Amino acid sequence: MAWIKASCSTCGDVELGIGEVKLMMCASTSEASYVFQCPTCELIVSKAAEENVVDVLVASGVRLSVWHLPAELDEQHYGSPIGYDELLEFHFQLRDDAWVEELAAMASAKEPFRRDLEPAGPYDQP
Ligand SMILES: [Zn+2]
Fold first, then answer.
1. How far is the CA of 64 from the centre of ligand 1 (A)?
2. What are phi and psi of 23, to 5 degrees?
3. Per-residue pLDDT at 58
4. Same domain membership, residue 61 and residue 16
5. Which residues, in sequence order, are CB contacts of 56 under 8 Å at separation 6+?
6. Quick one: 92 and 60 in the same domain?
7. Percentage of the residues of the chain whose pLDDT score is greater than 90
8. Are residues 82 and 56 in the same domain?
9. I want to staple 69 with a disulfide (CB 3.0 to 4.6 A). Which of 27, 28, 40, 96 is the partner?
10. Rounded to two decimals, what is the model's pTM?
11. Of 62, 20, 58, 57, which Cα lies nearest the Cα of 40?
12. What is the pLDDT of residues 37-51, one digit of tens each?
């Protein structure tokens, strides 16, 4: 069985089995990271992984999980973000049994959002 040498910020160098390291890569940004639980202090350690680290870990047998940024990040958003007042109003609307019908009416409306607001760009990605 192959062992992987990693570094815990508390304990220093530690050795891990292949199954003890989780490697993740965002397909949208090509950024990768790996995470493991330190076998000595049991802290969860997470670190960014450069391309060469990803290559070494994959070549050692660590399974690579690929994920994508949520599609919602590409959506156009209108108006300003909701505030506490809107959230509180929504909370009280949910207390009324008519909220399902109101929501269905809003969803079937031809223009579900205000046209007088300029569309905001997609949210900045980190
Ligand atoms: Zn440790």
1. 23
2. -115, 130
3. 95
4. yes
5. none
6. no
7. 60
8. no
9. 28
10. 0.61
11. 20
12. 999 999 999 999 999
HSE value, Cβ hemisphere, 13 Å, CA-based, for 35: 6
Cα 65 to middle of ligand 1, angstroms? 24
CA of 25 to the centre of ligand 1 (A): 24
Express the helix, strand and coil content of the chain in percent, nearest 5 each. Answer: 30, 30, 40
Q: Which amino acid is at 75?
A: E
Q: Is the pLDDT of residue 69 over 90?
A: yes
64 neighbors 23 (Cβ within 8 angstroms): yes
Determine the structural domain holding residue 105 and report its residue range: 76-120
Average pLDDT over residues 23-32: 95
The rounded distance, in Å, linking the Cα atoms of 49 and 32 is 5
- State residue 13's pLDDT score: 97
3-state secondary structure 40-88: CCCCEEEEEECHHHHHHHHHHCCCEEEECCCHHHHCCEECCCCCHHHHH
Ligand 1 mean position to 36 CA, how many Å? 10
Interval between CA 39 and ligand 1 midpoint (Å): 7
